[in-house]
Amino acid sequence: MKRLLASVLALAMVLGVCLFAGCNDEPDATTTKKPADAVETTTGDKTTTEPTNPGTETTTNNDDPAETTTGEPEGPIEPEEWDGTTKLPGYEDVDFRGKTFVIAGYTGSADGFDNVREIYSEDTDAIAVAVKERNQYIELRYNCNIEVNASDAPGGLVSAEVTSGKHTIDIYSNKYAVGTSATSGNNYNLYSLGIDFTQDWWDQNYVKANTVKNSAGIDTLYSIVGDFAFSASSLTHALMFNKNLYETAIAQELGYDIYQLVRDGKWTMDVFIEMVQKAGNDVSGNQSFAYSEGDIIGWATTIHATHGLHVASGLPMITTTNGTMSFAMSNAKSEWTNVIEKAIDVWALPQHDNCGYSSGQQAIVSGNTLFYSDIISKLEESTLRDSDTAVGLVPYPKYSTTQENYAHYVDNHLMTYSVPTSVVEIEELGDFFTIYAAHTTAIVRPAWIDAYAYEYCGDADSGEMLEIILNTRTYDPGYLIFSSFEGEISQQINAGKNNITKLIDKRYDSIAGPGGSIEKHIKDISDNKA
Question: φ, ψ for residue 428 (rounded to 5)?
C-alpha cells in the first residue's frame, strides 16, 4: 500500500511538472540545470558546470497574467495564500537578467549524508520532482538559472575562493559548522544582505538560536536553514511506532488514540512509559527483555536517544534571547534535576533495549518493538521503506501537560547554508536567497511531507505529526556549537546517575565565566568583520 500511494503521488507531481513545462505555452522558458558530472575543484577563473540541456535560454513571460499582483504583502506571507507558482508578493519587479546562481552542496560520498538533492536531482520521486518544479518556476518568473556544484567539501571550495578572490559559488551548505560558519571569516553576516528573517520560510527556531549580537551590539547570523534544507528536517530525532502492534497491544487494550493525545498536548512521558510497559512480552521466558532473544520490547533505541530524552523537556542548555547567549541551565537546576531523574527512569525500563541502528529498524519491521527512536530519514532507508509494515510517526512526549511545546533536536550532521564573502552583489543575492527559500516552502515542503506521510508511513496522521515535529525543532548551542557538554548530560542518563547540579556548577566557569566558551564565541564573531 505504501508503494502504491508513493507511485500515485510521484505520478501526480510528474504530471504537474509536465503540465507546467509543456502545456503552459512556455516550454522553452524552463531551464533548470544540473552539471553533466559533479563539479570538481578547479584553479581557473570559473567552475565549469556544463548543463544537461545546453543552448536553452531563460526568458520572462511578461504577458502571463498570473504574474500580476497588487501591492506589498501585509505581515508574514502565509503558504496557503500563495502557492509558489507566481512571483513572491513584494518581489514582482525582480528580474535577474539571465544570471546564473550556483549553490554548492554535499555529495554524501564521504558519510552518506547527501544534500545535493535539495538543490537539484534527476530522480523521479515526488520530492525530486517538486525540487525541479521549484527551480523551473524561479528560473522562469525571475529570469535566472540555478546550478548545483556537487562536492565532497563545499566549505573547502568556498575557502579557496575567498582566499584567492575568485567567485563562482553564491550559496553553499556546510556540515558540523553552526559555530565555525560564524567565526571563519568566509561568510557574510546574512542580515547585511537585506533579508527579512521573520518570514516562516526561514526556520524561526534556528534564527532565534543563532542570531547573536557581536561586541558592537549588531545582530549577526552567518548560517541559516529552512525548508530548502532537507537535512534540518530529515535529521530530526523523533519516535516511530509499529502500527499493528500499537493497535493490538495499546489501542485495544488501553483505549488510547496516540495521535489525539499528541493533538491534545497529553502525550507525556508517563503515558509513554505505560505504553512501553504494556507492549513488552518476554517471549524467551528468561525474565528479561531483549530483541536479540526474540522478545517483544516496548522501545528500541540507539545511544543517541538519551539526547532526545532530555531535549524533549524543552529545557535548553544554552539559550539565545534577543541576541544574548547565556547558560540557561544555571538558572534551572531544580527543573533539570527532575528531568534527568525521569529520563533515567525511562531509559532504565526493562522493556527498553538500546539495540543499535540496524537492530532497531529490524525490530520495528518484524513487530518486535512498539517504538523506535532515530532520525526521521531512517524512514527513507530500504529496511523501513520497502517493508509492508505499517509505521507511524509521533513527537517525543512532553514531561508534563503543562509543558508548552514538544521539543526535538536536529542531529549535528545537518547542513546549514551560508553566503561566502566572495559574492559581490549581496543585495541581489539576498533577493535570490529569499525567493529560493519562499518558493521551497510553497512548493517543496508539501511534497516532502506528503512523501513521508504516504510513502514512508502510509497515513495522513503521520503528516500532521511531522508538521508538529518540524515546528518544534531545537538548535541548542550547547550541542551544535559546544558539543562536548551535551555528551556529559546524556552520559548521566545512560549511567543512571543524576549529578546534573554538580555538572552545572562544575562547568559554569568554562561555559559562562570570563574567557569561557560563550565569551570566546562572541569575540570570534566580533572579529569577523563580514
Answer: -65, -40
